[in-house]
Write a structure and sequence with these properties.
Chain B: Keywords: Membrane, Transmembrane, Transmembrane helix. Chain B: This is Succinate dehydrogenase. Chain B: InterPro entries: Cytochrome_b-558, SQR/QFR_C/D. The complex is a heterotrimer of chains A (637), B (228) and C (261). With 637 residues, chain A is α+β, with helices and mostly antiparallel strands. Chain A contains 17 helices and 20 strands. In chain A, helix 3 links the parallel strand 1 and strand 2. In chain A, helix 4 crosses helix 5, helix 5 packs across helix 12 and helix 14 packs antiparallel against helix 15. Chain B has one domain. Chain B is built from 9 helices and no strands. In chain B, helix 2 packs across helix 8. With 261 residues, chain C is of the alpha+beta class. Chain C folds into 2 domains: 111 residues, Roll (Ubiquitin-like (UB roll)), CATH 3.10.20; 129 residues, Alpha-helical ferredoxin (Fumarate Reductase Iron-sulfur Protein, Chain B, domain 2, Orthogonal Bundle), CATH 1.10.1060.10. A 5-stranded mixed sheet of chain C has the order 2-1-5-3-4. In chain C, strands 6-7 form a two-stranded antiparallel sheet. In chain C, strand 1 and strand 2 form a beta hairpin. The chains are: A alpha+beta (637), B mainly alpha (228), C alpha+beta (261).
Chain lengths: 637, 228, 261
Amino acid sequence: MLPDSKIPEGPLAEKWEKHKFNVKLVNPANKRKYDVIIVGTGLAGASAAASLAELGYNVKAFTYHDSPRRAHSIAAQGGINAAKNYQNDGDSVFRLFYDTIKGGDYRAREANVYRLAQVSVNIIDQCVAQGVPFAREYGGLLANRSFGGAQVSRTFYARGQTGQQLLLGAYSALSRQVAYGKVKLYTRTEMLDLVMVDGKARGIITRNLITGEIQTHAAHAVILATGGYGNVFYLSTNAKYSNTTAAWRAHKKGAYFANPCFTQIHPTCIPVSGDYQSKLTLMSESLRNDGRVWVPKAKGDKRDPRQIPEDERDYFLERKYPAFGNLVPRDVASRNAKQACDEGRGVGTTGLAVYLDFADVIKREGADKVSQKYGNLFEMYEKITGENPYELPMRIYPAVHYTMGGLWVDYNLQTTIPGLYATGECNFSDHGANRLGASALMQGLADGYFVIPYTIGDYLAQTPPTPVTTQHPAFAQAEAEVRERINKLISIKGNRTPTEFHKALGHIMWEYCGMARNAEGLRHAKAEIQKLRKEFWSDLKLTGTNEELNQALENAGRVADFIELGELMVEDALQRNESCGGHFREEYQTPENEALRDDENFAYVAAWEYAGEGKPEILNKEELQFENVKLTQRSYK
Amino acid sequence: MSWISNTFSSSIGRKVLVAITGLFLCSFLVVHLIGNFQLFKNDGGAAFNIYSHFMGTNPVIRTLEWVLLLGFVFHIYESYTLAARNRAARAVAYVESRPSQNSPWYSRSMALLGTIILVFLLVHMYNFFYRARFGDLDPDINNNADLYTLVYSSFKQWWYVLLYVAAQVALCYHLIHGFRSAFQTLGLNHRKYTPIIRAIGYAFAVLVCAGFAIMPLYFFFFKPELAH
Amino acid sequence: MAGSNPNAKPMNLTLKVWRQKNRNAEGGIVEYHVKDISPEMSFLEMLDVLNEDLLHKGEDPVAFDHDCREGICGSCNLFINGRAHGPEKGTTTCQLHMRKFNDGDTITIEPWRANAFPVNRDLSVDRSAFDRIIQAGGYVSVNTGGTPDGNEIPIPKPIADRAFEAATCIACGACVAACKNASAMLFVSAKVSQLALLPQGQVERKTRVENMVAQMDKEGFGACTNIGQCAAECPVGISLENIAILNREFISAKATSNNLA
């Protein structure tokens, strides 16, 4: 049974204010008696760790990186949205709320999204005060740019490195608390399980990645800020270490997993060049402002693109969507690229790419002007592919980029386990079935700086401020389970490496649960994944021991969890008999091949409950109430 | 006064001392070079000996001599202290290192160049300074100690000339790096001024060292026998 | 056309890789051969191939740090053929591609070497010294909430741009690795000048530079001798001007602060 989502009563605009007044407070002298564990030190984790330590709580922060500054938040390029309306162009909290709900294809909670839009303005102030060097106008005020899915300029940015600058801001705030002794930082330490005492989250089990030491840590509350699970596809724009283990372990201890099948595919990534490919690199969406997407009209046309005359090219986005052209939303652009390639008209050696051509704009505006706009992106493209985009059209292909699904949380960001919270990409809360550009940074920081510091107090105030220890037998038991699992992985001594299993999983997920899904394919995928899981536990190959830096062992544990999550994603995609946002079911489309939503039957959050080893997961539904926006079908024709 | 010792024993503090003393020693080089131009006067060394007599007896100069000595001592001591610390900062060396692809050799060899200059300095000080001040030089026609003759006879020996010229080459490279490096250490790096400082540094290093190097070469190759 | 280049011939390479079991173990170079390396691979993908090979043979894979593989997280840190991040300028190891090498090449791969960066295993080093330097003062002491509006203090664009350029440091440690003196001045200076340039950084300007330099010295990094190897090898182009700013900030803080220690 799904617990109450704790959405406050009253008008949308007053919910958060009212809620902040109604939550219980921990008095300042008592705060130092509470310990809070935060797993992950990206935007959501570092901001929460710093803010809670500033309030007086004792924080233990964990990261598997060698430094908090390496979290994958650092790679976000574009920017961060905020309803500042500095541009006088009609922006407001309500408009940001509306754009986000609509962009998410009406599968997010109104109250959460409205709060996100409200606190967005505070984020900018906070970051500026920390010394984050946002882009500025000549008059010295903050600059904005526009981004997909919005008709106003509300995106704050620091060249193409906004995520880096915001993360370094949060990292600096965290570092300050480490220096004060309010945060104890554990680097190169991976969470391997959650410890529950009397039905509540009470601590975690970790492994020191350098020495292999297994440790137990107790606290009054645990926050997971462990990011998304896009690497279930093996190839994605996520960092190599990004994984689902912490969230998945919590899921298996009782935290529901919401909307796992909602994944975002980004249309403009550098295509795969070979089997050895280890990750995909995003090229900013802004390129579609001037680049024209095309493939040859004829199948298997392998000519040099410059030799293909105009009338033998198919500018398929401009042809199909005359109103929006190359600027259709991410999911539409991605699906059409896939379609062209499926028809055998893809380009490059693999046939899995389409051209993004800048010849026209270079001719029109000159190479200099184009270089000013996109110089650094062109350079990056050339570094990776060895091709000069001023001369040859870029080759691009869609890639997995973000996961909207995640641990189910209520309005307080608490999971279904009391005392366990999830923030940032790790939770499911704000983006519905599709995330708008420049909203991930906003959500991570909103959760960490401005939501969790209020809502966690409500729980802690109802928890006695007595010291917590790892003496409870639950710790010993969880530790033993972790050790047993590691020993099991090492003792299989089969023939296939963790990476080989990961690639096999990624292949299944991408083929059957990627840009377009259908019931038959999903059922096939489910069987394939179950088979793969069996093979994994009988044919895995590892070397070395637990008591050393053993990267293959780390990877094996993560792949094992990805395999289980993959199956749940397929299950979720299978039950959602509609198309919405990033979830496109081929059976449910309009005559023009657009996503066909079913608000009558599917306007709910699918929250999956772990039922035990070998048993099917239980689907719980949280019906979504839309009182402030009207549900409409998107059209970009 | 712990803040003073803390400041000057920090890595940057020591560098600042090296930079300040380095620039001070540069100013000494200019004075020394100009004075030594007396050697080129074709008067059998009379002017040079007057000059050296003045330098050896004038109370202002004698006081500044101690300042100069302090400059040398600090420059050398701080540099060696830093060099030792820097060497110790990487206990395990790279198996393969190709620094020539990212920096000029002389910038990486300041301690070595400095050591060559120091060796030269000791020989130079013993031969000229010590013997002029405490030694046994005969008087010249003006009754000044005849340092000129000593210079002359020294510069007629090929190995001595070689040592001097080699030392000037070392000094030149030491200065090319040292001059601009001193400004960087003192915090002066600006897109307007840094190119100018670099140019002046080059010119200064080449001109000063060439000036000093010409002296032994001139005596060795062009100066006829003394008419004693 | 690369990526779709049928002429790109696979390469066979000899790798001389530093292997070291753990921090206290003796290390040494071990030679490996990798075959059929595509010129389109990134350097780390080439190492992935080696590691899969080793794992299949039952040998321990080579440990190395990496994560984002798009040049921004600062994790990757290999000393390749005598150069920090290898032969290509302005490039992290993960963005270095095998097309920069030739068939038959021998490539030497070592970890960063500095006492302040002890080796964890093989090519992975401990760079927590950088974190401790930031903890010593690389921040503005503002708590969450209660900050003024973002547009309250205008910042001239050229200043904001320069602060941004300094702030782009990815803390990979190539500056330390490349420097003959294993000095961390470029890293420290990037943070000090970012905050010294911005109005928000003024309040703690003096204590910040004093404390960060003190921590830097404590960590055992060498001193700067203005050689410039750091900036030459920096993958994100942090300029030497920052070191001059750091020197200036340090001198003036020491001369004028109330700190008697």
